[in-house]
Amino acid sequence: MTAANAAPKPAAKATPKAAKPSKGASADATGVSVQEAQAVSKAKPVSKDEPKAAEAVATDADKPATLSAARGGKADDLKLIKGVGPKLEELLYTLGFYHFDQIAAWNANELAWVDQNLEGFKGRASRDEWIDQAEKLATGAETEFSARAKKKTGSITTKSTGR
Fold first, then answer.
1. b/e code 63-88 from CB counts within 10 Å (16+ = b)
2. Residue 99 class from Cβ within 10 Å (0-12 exposed, 13-18 middle, 19+ buried)?
3. What is the pTM of this model?
4. Residue 93's closest CA among 137, 163, 145, 159?
């Protein structure tokens, strides 16, 4: 019989080595090291509409102070706040928010109320840090976003401050 006709030898089976912790890491009582342990999550997915555990659930008592109309009949251009477009600006006006200083004055509970009541835009005020932006804009300062927005639209003043 030639070598070509000879039946191939089965490959030797590797015997698994016993798990041992890496240098400096100890195994737990089961003998499994941290590196070998499989993570298993028992948490259920959270829907986008459910508040996160860290978020406060606001009540009607947390609603910020609103206005029935813009002071002097002139609202600020809220689109200078990152995250606020034409539709969201109209929603804010409908809710009674017309001016940067109103937004800048919100506390954490009021911010949570606004986040929960922005239909179709829930959480936007927190994510885009509206309060910080509004504080700057209310004093006449610019944010990086407002500077770019003004260049695009050619707008150089805010309606309430005239700056």
1. ebeeeeebeeeebbbbbbbbbbeeeb
2. buried
3. 0.60
4. 159
Q: Rounded CA gap, 71 and 96, in Å? A: 11
| Neighbouring residues of 41: CB distance < 8 A, sequence distance ≥ 6 | none
Residue 59 phi/psi, 5° resolution?
-110, 175
**SS3 (DSSP) at 73:** helix
pLDDT in tens, 114-126: 999 999 999 999 9
Hunting for tokens 């910080």 — which residue is that? 132
Tokens representing residue 97 in the block: 């928010």
